Amino acid sequence: MTTVRTIKAKQRPGDRVFSASTTIAGCIILAALAAVAVFLLAESVPAVVSGPDELRDGADTFWAYVAPLAFGTLWAALIALVIAFPISIGIALFISHYAPRRIAQGLGYIVDLLAAVPSVVFGLWGIKVLAPLVTPFYQELTTNLGWIPLFSPPASGTGRTVLTVGIVLAVMIIPIITAISREIFLQTPVLHEEAALALGATRWEMISMAVIPFARPGIISAAMLGLGRALGETMVVAMVLSPAVVISFVLTGSSNPATIAGNIALNFPDAYGVQVNALIASGLVLFVITLVINSVARIVVNRRKAFSGAN
């Protein structure tokens, strides 16, 4: 009976230093995340157990206070994702499979530059340009489609609605989703594309049969990254939205639900006592929402990990 001896390769000093540094970096990230979670939990307790006299907006409990904010956060981010996702995928496919090389390179640079524009610039554009521009359009929507609950009259006279915020957020996350999706599309095996074309498929049929299935996990990752940016955006919401403490699905009305990040930015300077704890506790709710959404996205991606170019 023969025994098989495994010979381990001797690690060089550079390998040991690199391995130790990456381990330390990973531990630092986990420690920082745990420290943030502990801080949020500790500071949230006074707000959770407080009475209605200590909270803002006359809420009876903390959960009644944070529910409209959580709804507004998810609603605005969902609107942005619905608008941005198909546009981003179309731009990424055009750059990777349709545009001539020079045009594709130029568009790629522009997309990357748009991702670096500060959010305050988008906020100024939204409040000074977009809001006045879409106000007549909102009036037409409520006049002709007012029977649909999403466009119930009366329309906002300023254009500072949750739909306007969703459009601005969509413009902000389009470069993120586009840049990641473009790189994933370019990683599609050339043999798969050539095989589809050799079988007589058109370019779109080749994309639908070879590129999209290969890139689906990466597309999901890109969408979730853009959604995370929209969930945590502060300046755009604080500058553009005219918020109220309501839960409303109306897109064009003057009474719009606030978001957690925007509410913290607007009220934190004037808050005191338990009100500060309530704002921190709402930040904990946003932390949990983001964590849950990213975890679900990671589970979906890992189901097709073998086909993913994003892992």
From TrEMBL:
Any GO MF annotation of the entry: phosphate transmembrane transporter activity
Pfam families: BPD_transp_1 (PF00528)
Domain ABC transmembrane type-1 stretches: 70-297
Keywords assigned: Cell membrane, Membrane, Phosphate transport, Transmembrane, Transmembrane helix, Transport
Top-rank lineage group of the source organism: Bacteria
Xref: InterPro entries: MetI-like, MetI-like_sf, Phosphate_PstC, Phosphate_Transport_Permease
A GO CC term assigned to this protein in UniProt: plasma membrane
Gene Ontology biological process terms from the UniProt entry: phosphate ion transport
Topological relation to the membrane, as annotated: Multi-pass membrane protein
Transmembrane segments: 20-42, 62-95, 107-127, 161-180, 234-254, 274-297
Subcellular location: Cell membrane
Biological function: Part of the binding-protein-dependent transport system for phosphate; probably responsible for the translocation of the substrate across the membrane.
Family to which this protein belongs: Belongs to the binding-protein-dependent transport system permease family. CysTW subfamily.
Protein's name in the database: Phosphate transport system permease protein
Lineage: Bacteria, Bacillati, Actinomycetota, Actinomycetes, Micrococcales
